[in-house]
Structures are given as structure tokens and as C-alpha cells.
Amino acid sequence: TQLLEQSPQFLSIQEGENLTVYCNSSSVFSSLQWYRQEPGEGPVLLVTVVTGGEVKKLKRLTFQFGDARKDSSLHITAAQPGDTGLYLCAGVADNDKIIFGKGTRLHILP
Amino acid sequence: ETGVTQTPRHLVMGMTNKKSLKCEQHLGHNAMYWYKQSAKKPLELMFVYSLEERVENNSVPSRFSPECPNSSHLFLHLHTLQPEDSALYLCASSQDGSGGTGYGYTFGSGTRLTVV
Q: A44-54 pLDDT, tens per residue?
């Protein structure tokens, strides 16, 4: 059974600080997606990474896919209250099945 | 209206009730999905419809019954549910049947279901 482990489960930091959250698996994925879910809403796709070692930037968010395509990280620079939410990673297997992690719940304190 | 719309947003039902959740997508996507989101668990795929045909049913109990009358509408019919079925039910759509392309899923806002 393929699993995606996200860490930490919860993170509460002050506005302006930097942070990194992780998504790890023992399985190889053809691509990996990151979503953000705000309270009372559905997840919204932020980015898809496809190539091992790939780095994508979305304003203050930097996403990296591991060289072996088994893990990924999300780094946020100078966190803002608007970054608060549940961050979900989803791995796409070669058979196109998508596995979600449990998520990292991020709270940015003003 | 654009995106994926789910109704109702909140639903409280007794264990003997019958209710339906509705999902509508205005994106021209070919595939639609039902997911269950429970606290401290990953998103669980329930049903997949591609071009209006059910292509996957992940061993969901028969008290959940999906219906996809056309490529824009998806329903989840509920009957004799259990309290452990209380969760956020999310509808999603994607351009193709996998959701694995760069476009990923577009999710609705969900229906918060409470079974009493």
C-alpha cells in the first residue's frame, strides 16, 4: 500500500517567519501535487511537480520534488496570515492512482 | 457560475433518512469524483465517473449510491447512514479520468454531513 507521510502535522508560527513542510513516501510517483485547503472550503491546487529535482516557485512558496521522486517539500518565506490552511500533498502513481497525505495544518499568527 | 458547486453546504440527517448530495461543474471536464474527508485521515476516494461511466468504486458501502446523469452533474444518494459516516464530502472534477495531469483536481467546497 502506497502511503504519503506529511510532517509536521501541525505548525503554528509568527508572521514573517520561514517554514518548511515535508511529504515523504517509500514509493516512486510520476508526479506530485500540492493543495491548500482553507476552513470551510475544498482543496485548491497550488502546483504539480513532475521531474525529479524540479523546483517551482509561486510567489513566497517554493516547491521541490526529490531527485528520486519519492518526496517533496514546501518552503514558505516570510509567512503571512493568508497562508493559514491545511496543506495536502498528493502523489500520482504510474497507474494514475492518486494518493493523498493527511496534511499539515498551518497557522500563521499575526 | 464557474468551478465546482456543491449543495447543500451542511446536512444533518437521522440514520433512517434518505438524502442526496448534488455536485455541478461548469468547467467542461470529463471526469467527476466523490471524496470523503474525515479528521486525521487522508482524503478517501469513493467513486470516479469518466464520461458519465463509473470507472472506479473503492469498496464503498451500498448505503452510498452515486449517480451521474451527464458530464456536468454528479449526485451521491444517502440512506440508512451510520454516525461514523459523518464527514466532509467533496466533489471534484478533472479534465481527464485520472486527475494526474498538471491540471489536477478542481474541488467543490464540500458538504459537511452529520449523521445523528
A: 999 999 999 99
